[in-house]
Structures are given as C-alpha cells and as structure tokens.
Amino acid sequence: MNTARCFAALCMGLSTISLAACDAAKAPAPSPPIEDEAGATGSDAPPAEDDASASPDNAQPESGVTDGAPDLTPAPLAGEAERGERGARNVLLSFIRALELKEFDQAYDLLRQDARRGMTKAQFAAQFDGFGQITVASPKGMIEGAAGTIYYTAPVTITGSNGQELDGEIVLSRVNDVPGASEEQLRWRVRSIDLPE
After folding, report:
1. Distance CA 157, CA 136 (A)
2. Separation between Cα atoms, residue 63 and residue 102, nearest integer Å
C-alpha cells in the first residue's frame, strides 16, 4: 500500500511538471523594448556593441569623406633634408596619400594660396567626385631655384577606379631661407597642379 501511495505521489508530481512546461510553451514571447523618439529604449541594460560584421574594418570611405584620420601631416625633417628635394618629396607624398585616402581637407591644407585660386575645400574635393578609388603616381621630379624661391616639379598621374585619368605636372615651392621669411614660407607646399582634361 505504501508503494501504491508513493507511485501515485510520483505520478502527480510528474503531471504538475508537465502542465507547467506546457503552459510555458504556450506563453507569448516577450515584447521587444519600446523606443522613444530619440531611439533610446526603456531598458536599463546597456546597448549591445555593434557586430563587427556590420561595419568591417576594411570598408572603403565614401567619396569626399574627410575625417582627419590618419593624420597625414608631413613628418618634420631637419637641415638640408628639409630644404632640398627630400623635403619636397616628403610633402608631395603626404599630398598624394591624402588624395588616395580621400582626405581632401588635408590635401587642400598642403596647397599654397596660388594653387587654391579662390577654390574652397568643398570645390577642391568635388574635382574627384566619381573617381572611385584613387591612385596617384608621381615619379621623381626636378629641383631648381630662382629669385630666392626653390621649386620642385614632377609629373603626376591621378587615376580613378572608374577608368578616369588625369595626367599633368605638380609644382611645389618654398622660400630659400631669405631673411625675414615666415615659417609658412619656409615650408614646402604645392604651388600648382596642371592637369589638362
């Protein structure tokens, strides 16, 4: 008789567990948190971090996007290296890299007033709309001095992944250590870019 009671109690316990499981299966799924107008949720839990697959590290920037990273300011050189062809190439390579990375604001900042010709940063960037990925080639140039200013002239080819190509010449200049010259005048900067279409 004790065995029969124990068996009945066991059966009753199992049926209670089974009913609880059935009720849980029929329960509606919890509602997602409601967002306010700013997109914030009512939950106190911190927002989940972005999935790495949603924004891959190797994503290419959009055309004309300038976020200032990386900083492409030419590395400072000392003495004759800064004054000569090495200093000119140093600035030219920073300018080229800025174009290739679509850091147009940084490229624009390396232009002398002559090269800007009243052109805004936005107008400068607009010249490269539709190029797609940009590649710039500028083989070795030639340095020469005249009337207290040194010039560095090199051929340049700007190619877009869309097949567009501009060939021409780029000229950099700096004042040749003339007494009273400002720091800006003593820096190499892009003086002109001649890119006939």
Report:
1. 6
2. 7
